[in-house]
Design goal:
Layout: H1 10-21, H2 24-36, H3 40-68, H4 72-79, H5 85-117, H6 120-123, H7 126-138, H8 142-159, H9 162-189, H10 195-202, H11 211-224, H12 231-236, H13 245-273, H14 284-294, H15 299-332, H16 337-357, H17 372-399, H18 401-409, H19 419-441
The chain binds 4-fluoro-L-phenylalanine.
């Protein structure tokens, strides 16, 4: 039997988990979701969610993974059994759905790297950039080609293994991502008129807050922190018994949140400086930023680096999503890692095609008033991830609590001072808050 792998070092694990968390959700999604939901007020609610429910559920997932040393489905089967593995099964289903549309957007970032090298972005003004983006995503062929390319890269990392693939890639890519973000923020906040954008993100206006804002903040927090579908269970399953797991969860949460706020500080000032609408939606990254770069010396070069880093951020996240599914087939179905990675990668690629086409020729086709892409996004981040997070909390809080508590105590067995606080959150606060927000969102009351 093949030995199950471990992370090579604690830093390797933190970077891989942060690589999972930091992705399109932070750089592409967060700024426009914040923009559409009242800026600063959204940010405050988001931060409150992240550091209470988010951090607690992240630790809960890592504990489930480390205690069981199994994939998302196998972990529940090993620790308790009964109907609990269904929680993992929902996670695996969510992984298929999320990666299918995630890879489409990631493909756009790769295409935009090519466009910046070709100088296509530098020549256009902002109106023309908007048109270019609309035409590109509506094209029935080219975005699907880039989606295929991106899935192939993701499959390559995952089939190379936990240490030689995932950990090694994260150790190179994550520091690079961080460095470039800093450079780009300095550029953005020194643009004339940028102060308005900074104020928009940092000054809360509570008159804009509705239940919808709270629900958006919760789903954004789960998506951004990679929670609710077993990604952190899977990554946690490669941890050794001695690692300070709570410290690692704290680091990952902090890194993820900092990158989201930094991306907001990069994009929103640019939006205001160029007179765009902060609620413009998904196009912000692909239209506004190229417009900013076009005004700078060496703009094409900066644009290339920006889209390269967006692609990198997406890659380390996509890898973790694919790993959720692959780990299941490797652990529980005894399928070879290479075979499982390729087969699952192909299926997810096919599932992504309708999402891509819904931006163009299949745009008319809607279900519940949403196009295919938006529907996949809504089902996963508004429903599957929060429901997954709800059951993961309940599982740790009520089913395996004494053992989970022992697991975070560390080698010397001394209980950390926060352990009871964590208990209260996973037992009561997180399940109640998630259930309330979900029911509210479904219009039950
Ligand atoms: N956290 C990633 C992002 O913010 O882009 C997306 C993601 C990765 C969601 C892994 C869920 C997941 F399990």
């Amino acid at each position: 039997m093949i030995q199950r792998e471990y992370w090579g070092s604690r830093l390797g694990f933190i970077l891989a988990a942060a690589g999972s968390a930091v992705g399109l959700g932070n750089i592409w999604k967060f700024p426009y979701v914040a923009g559409a939901n009242g800026g600063g007020a959204f940010l405050l609610i988001y931060l409150a969610m992240v550091f209470t429910i988010g951090l607690s559920v992240m630790l809960a997932e890592m504990v489930i993974g480390r205690m069981s040393r199994k994939n998302a489905i196998g972990a529940f089967a090993k620790l308790k059994g009964g109907a609990w593995p269904l929680v993992g099964l929902c996670g695996v289903a969510a992984a298929f759905i999320i990666l299918s549309f995630y890879s489409v957007v990631a493909g756009w970032t790769v295409a935009y790297m090519v466009k910046s090298v070709a100088g296509e972005l530098a020549l256009a003004d902002s109106g023309a950039l908007g048109g270019m983006f609309g035409d590109f995503i509506a094209n029935p062929v080219s975005p699907i080609f880039y989606h295929a390319l991106f899935m192939a890269l993701t499959v390559f990392v995952v089939l190379s293994g936990v240490g030689a693939g995932i950990e090694r890639a994260s150790k190179i890519l994550m520091p690079a991502l961080f460095g470039l973000l800093v450079i780009l923020i300095i550029r953005a906040v020194t643009l004339p008129g940028a102060a308005e954008g900074v104020a928009f993100l940092l000054q809360p206006d509570f008159s804009k807050v509705t239940w919808n804002t709270v629900s958006e903040a919760l789903s954004q927090a789960f998506f951004s922190l990679s929670l609710g579908m077993g990604a952190m269970i899977t990554y946690g399953s490669y941890l050794g018994k001695k690692d300070n797991i709570a410290g690692s969860a704290g680091w990952v949460t902090l890194l993820d949140t900092s990158v989201a706020v930094m991306a907001g500080l990069l994009i929103l000032p640019a939006v205001f400086a160029f007179g765009f609408d902060p609620a413009a939606g998904p196009g912000l990254t692909f239209i506004t930023l190229p417009a900013v770069f076009a005004q700078m010396p060496f703009g094409s070069f900066f644009a290339f680096l920006f889209f390269l880093l967006l692609a990198i951020a997406a890659l380390t996240s996509a890898v973790s999503i694919l790993e959720v599914v692959v780990a299941y087939f490797v652990d529980d179905r005894r399928i070879h890692r290479k075979t499982a990675s390729i087969a699952v990668g192909v299926i997810i690629f096919l599932l992504g095609i309708p999402s891509s086409l819904s931006m163009g020729i299949w745009g008319e086709f809607t279900l519940f008033g949403l196009g295919f892409f938006d529907l996949m996004d809504a089902i996963s981040s508004k429903l599957l991830l929060p429901v997954g997070g709800l059951f993961i909390s309940l599982f740790v809080g009520w089913v395996i609590w004494p053992a989970a508590k022992q697991d975070v105590a560390g080698a010397n067995g001394v209980m950390p001072f926060w352990v009871d606080g964590w208990g209260v959150i996973v037992k009561f606060v997180a399940p109640a808050a998630i259930a309330f927000i979900l029911l509210k969102g479904l219009g039950v009351f």
